[in-house]
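To whoever picks this up:

The nightly regression suite flagged ATP/GTP-binding protein as changed. Nothing in the input moved, so I suspect the structure step. Input below, exactly as stored in the fixture:
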Amino acid sequence: MALAAVLGQSPLAWAGDGDGGTDCPPGVFNCDLHATGGGKKDSNGGGGKPTGDDGGSTGGGAKCLIDGKEVACFVDKYGWYNPSDSCYWKVFDPQPPPDSERWKIAAGIPAGWKPGQGALYNRTCLAKGAELMSGDIYSAAPPPGMGGMVDPAQLAQQAVESMRLLGADVGIAPKPGSKTLVGLPVWFWTNVSDTTWGPKSASVSAGGVTVTATAHVDRIIWTTGDGGSETCRTPGKAYLPEYGTQQPECGHTYTKAGQYAINATSKWVVDWTATTGQTGRITTDRQAAASVAIAEAQALNTN
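Regenerated output under the current build:
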């Protein structure tokens, strides 16, 4: 099946998707339609192993996706994958001379264009295993993806860094400087904010790719200084005098007198999504500390 090029634009080639209906690529209004095989998938230009932030990361490296399927980020025949339109762009080298007719009929030439501004590329779009040759297209600057795709996992790491996530803003009862008795519960909590508990979000963009990450604390592990630990999946509840000796939402009961160092490890989980369709998760820890004094009942009564 074929659709003749009109309006003086050079013919383009579109690969049918098998369902009898196809459109021209973005920004191109005239195209020849014909069935083709799938384009060659070259292994160059992909990759990038994800790295964890303290705790680890998932989601893969730089990937190029068409119709939800991973493809090579560089194919020698087609050039570099552009995530903004899911097509391949290959710069003409050398560029056509300034008086070439190609400059006049290429898609995207702006009004008032002058020789030496921008460059011409050949754009190729692939859909459902078929090849679309979209012909000449102009761009004032190299398109996103030219020279290699940005690794979304690395952008996610940058997003995490920009959030400045913190450890717990520790609350403890009895308050620092005072004492409680052996056998009475000690209350732990964190004062909640977006940087101590979440959620907190940030976005980072580069090379035509945007990653949005959202962080929250999954749990806080309180090491109590007496060889024990308490894992709390809530921020805990701040103590009020009317609570008396009731059990805390998050806390610990000491069985021996002493001065104990308490460490709180906040286990942050950061889920991220990229405009490429990739997703991932980063885990990272943040620390905070406090201390508590525990006294024997008879010793406290003598003070």
